[in-house]
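Troubleshooting: if your tokenizer reports a length mismatch, compare your output against this known-good record of 267 residues.
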Amino acid sequence: MFKVHPARSFIFLALAGCFLCSQFLGEALAQCPTPDKIQGNVKKLFPNIEIVKITPAEAKGLCQVQVKLGTQNRILYTDATGDYFLAGNLVEAKSGRNLTMEATQILNRIPPEELRQLEPLTGLTLGQSGKVVYFVTDPQCPYCKQAEVILKKMAEKGEITVRFLFYPLPSHKGAKEQCVAFLCDKKGLSDWEKGYKSDNQCPDGVKKVEDTIAWLSKKGIGSTPTFIFPDGIFHSGLMPEEALRQRLGLPPAGGKPEMKKTSQIRK
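Known-good structure output:
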């Protein structure tokens, strides 16, 4: 009877597994059209985007098309023929996961070396311990005020450090001037909460606000509130406390009602 050494048997099984995986991946990729095949159709529908790559989507029969719009990565979906396109969110019914949003967030993740560039742009800091969350806010944004209540509570418990980034929206008259005055007069949290205003528009304050707007806009952040997490992934829109805690790997607070996820967009 032919005998196989256990170590050789393991190697054989591993190689067989790799072969089967490569075969499966090859078949999956073969079901998706090549970038060259869909380039013409994409340009007709979306003339300003560039195709990066195409991979099988989590939903059977769909292919995920990663595209570049300016400096931002976006996702489209197509079928095996490349004749049909879907621009929208792909949601897994069972879990409620927004697969498109998750994939887009990962593609647009801010690298650690660039996150450090936000430190000098910070306009206000809450807390001195825990994970650092950058909070993009506007003094006249009502959803930001709701988020601030949650963040303040978590910071007071020593769970997080919150660094405010001032991003006044053009639709809010006087918001930019409020941000500049706050910085120039070196005010604190209580003044921010009261909607502090003054005529002080010092050059350093103006530059800091404008530099913050430019940096965030370059990363595709155009609405408030936006949360930038330690891993570089950012989320635009109001998040309930439990969602924030889960995202940060913190234990549940328990029994808190969820708030509608919404935001205000810079126009």
